[in-house]
Amino acid sequence: MKFEFKSDIAVIVPFYNCEKFFIKRTIESILNQTYKNFKLYVVNDGSCDEKKKMLVDLVKKFADDRIILLHKENSGTGDTRRFGIEYAKEKYIALCDQDDTWKPEKLEKQKKFLIKNNCDFVSCRDTRYYFKGEELIKIKENSYEPISEPATSLNVAKSYLCSISWHGGIVPSNTFFTRDCFFRSLPYILLDKDICEDLSMVLSFAFCGVNFGFLDEILVFYSVHANNKGKSINTNETYNLKHIFYYLDLFEKKFSPKEFAKIKKQTLYNTYLNYSGRLFDAGEIGKAFQAISNSLKYRITAKNLRRFIKYKILLSKKGEK
User: Fold this and answer.
1) What are the angstrom distances between the C-alpha of 53 and each of 19, 26, 46, 101, 301?
2) Which of 94, 111, 139, 212 could form a disulfide with 151 if both were Cys (CB 3.0 to 4.6 A apart)?
3) CA of 98: how far to CAs of 43, 102, 227, 301, in Å?
């Protein structure tokens, strides 16, 4: 399919050993956008030969000139997104994970919102689709709430650090932003494989004073399934702590000493609390107990006390201290 106009939006989709069912529906939802003036950059992050061939054959079948297929050595999702954005020359960037889908009006509405509200970055709401294999078994709307304060960079950073999320729907597939703001922020984005690249990108944008916006509409369907990276158990402590300490150091001088002390306390409480849950789900009870013990150093709540007692009882039953 040929399009004669010049694209101004680059859609970046990192691909790594994804099943055909998911990547096919992702590409279809992007190609079916009401806004047609874009290019779709699918970046293969060193997938195995079988998945690479599947992707190449699939792109050929779509026969759409807007799809640009790129190949690179494996370096992780964050670095793969950077690779695609640097390759693309379009003014605006939209990210989409390899297994998520969009409503047809997603690009059109986000571009209009960004321009009208003079934003650099806009996110939206999404609905979670739970799959067992290729069967859709549950649908659940994410309960994002825009932060009550104005969405200034510092307020976004504060909320994002303190809750390890910003109540504004910032997951990659929901985002739309200018290419310029990405490159302004690039020196501060951590791209290591084990780093939570979503958190890193948003905090780097906030550090550089990006204007945030939130389009209060469901425009994305986020897929949750057995092979979904976001649902996998990552028990590497680096994943949960390295990026947190890096950004706490980066933002320390942006806040007053008193306010920063509160932010740091709440951030580390939540970090160790979340880390303990991941470890527990992975069956690493000893490490989970140590993590929840660390959370108690920063804040004592009913939630982490219950976990502390639960993990301690389990360790006693196993004969561990």
Assistant:
1) 12, 18, 12, 22, 51
2) 212
3) 10, 12, 11, 38
Of 228, 232, 234, nearest in space to 173 by CA: 228
Q: Whole-angstrom Cα distance, residue 320 to residue 274?
A: 22
- Picking from 275, 250, 271, 266, the residue whose alpha carbon sits closest to that of residue 162 is 266
Beta strands in 52-100 (DSSP E): 67-72, 92-95
Q: Average pLDDT of the chain?
A: 89
Run of H or E including 14:
strand 9-15
Q: What is this structure's pTM?
A: 0.89
Q: Are 130 and 138 in contact (CB under 8 A)?
A: yes
Whether the pLDDT of residue 169 is over 70: the answer is: no
Regarding beta strands 176-178 and 67-72, do their DSSP bridges make them parallel or antiparallel, or are they unpaired?
A: unpaired
Residues making up the chain, counted from first to last = 321
State both tokens at 208: 């550089």
